[in-house]
Amino acid sequence: MNVPYLIAKRYFFSKKKRNIISIISNIAMIGVAVGTAALIIVLSVFNGLEDLIRTIYTSFDPNLKISAAEGKSFETDTEFMNRIRRTPGVALVTEVIEDNALLRYNDRQMVVKVKGVSENFFEQNRIGSSVVEGDYNLYANDNYYALVGRGVQYQLSIRTSSQFTYMQFLYPRNTKFNPLNPEGAFKSLQITPGGVFAIERQYDDAYVFVPIQFAEELMEYGRRRTAIEIKVEDGYRIETVKRSLQKVLGESFLVQNSDEQHTSLLRAVKVEKLFVFITFAFILLIASLNIFFSLSMLVIDKKKDIAVLASMGATKEQIRNIFLIEGALVAFIGASYGLSLGMLIANLQQTFGIVSMGMATSVVDSYPVKLKLMDFVLTGAAIVIITMLVSIRPARKAAAMSVRDNL
Asked: Which letter, b or e, does each residue of 101-140 get, where b requires 16 or more Cβ atoms within 10 Å of its Cβ?
C-alpha cells in the first residue's frame, strides 16, 4: 500500500480543505493547463512550417544535388556523367547551368535567375504541375522556349500568347571591357516565352527555365555545369545513394539532399522552435509557482496531521513524499487537460484551417500544424522537472516539522 499517495490523494480531493488553498490549487492547475496547451500549439505550428518549407522545396528541388565544393561551376565529360549514371539507385540525371542574367521584354527589364536544364528535367515530377499558363515544354518543333515565373511575368508584362515578341537575355562576357563598344561586353540571345509557373514567391519572382543548350550558349559555359540533379530510383534510400555518389565523386564535390540544400533556413526554424520551447518552459515555471504557494499553505494547515503521522511512525521521507505527490497531482491533472486541449485545437486547425496566415500565398491559406510525439514527451518532461523544483521546499519543510510543537 502506498500510504503517501493515499494521503496526498485524500488532501487533494478533500472538500474540507480551506477555500483559499483550493482556489490557489485550481489557479495552479489552470495555469499549467493553459501553458501546456499553448506550448503544444506553438510547437505544432513550427512543425507545420517546417513541413511546409519542405513541401515548397520538394516541388522545385531534386532528391539529390551535386555541386562543386569550391567555385561556382565544374567541368563534365562523358566518363564523369557515366560514373554518376552507373551508381546504384540513380534513376535520372539532369544537367543544370544556373546564373543571373539581365532579361529584357519590350521596354522593360530586370535581373533574373536563368536555369538551363536538360530535356529530362520535368521527368523528375516537379514543377510541371505548377504551370498556370501555356506549356512547360522547353523543346518543341526545333525551337527553344522559356518557362517564366509568375512574378517575372507580372513585372515585365510577358505574354505567352504572343509568338512574335521575344525575351532577350544579356550575360556579361569574360572579356576586357571596351568603352567604345559597351554592348560588346554582353552576350545577347533571344527566346520565346512558352509558359508560366507559380510555386512560391521566392521562385516566381526570380526564375526563368530555359533549355540547357540555350544557357550554355548564352553564358559560354561549354561543358561546365553549375549542378547535376539526381532523381533517386524507387526502392532506394536517398541517404544510401548519397553516400555512394559521394564515394564515387570524392571530396571535390558536394552531394546534398533536399534538407541540406536549405540547411540555414531549416536550422533557423529549429533554433526558433528551441527558443520558443525554453520561453514557454519559463512561463510554465511562473504558472507553477502557485503550486509552491498552495503546498506551503497546505503544510501550515496540516501541521497537526503531520505531527500525528510522525508520532505513529511515519518517516520524514514518507511525509515529504506526501507533499511531493500532492504537487505532482496538481501538475499532472493540469498538464493532462493542457495536452488534451492543445491536441484538440491543433487538430481543429489542421482540419478546418481556423486561423488564417493573413497574407497572399500560393501554397496555404491557414497556419499549418503538425503534432509530434516528441513534443508531448519533452513538454511532459519539462512539467515533471518544474513540479519537482517548486514542490521540494514545502515538502522538506513538512518533513522537518517538530512533532512536540504541533501536537
From this structure: bbbbbeeeeeebbbbbbbeebbebebbbebbebbebebee
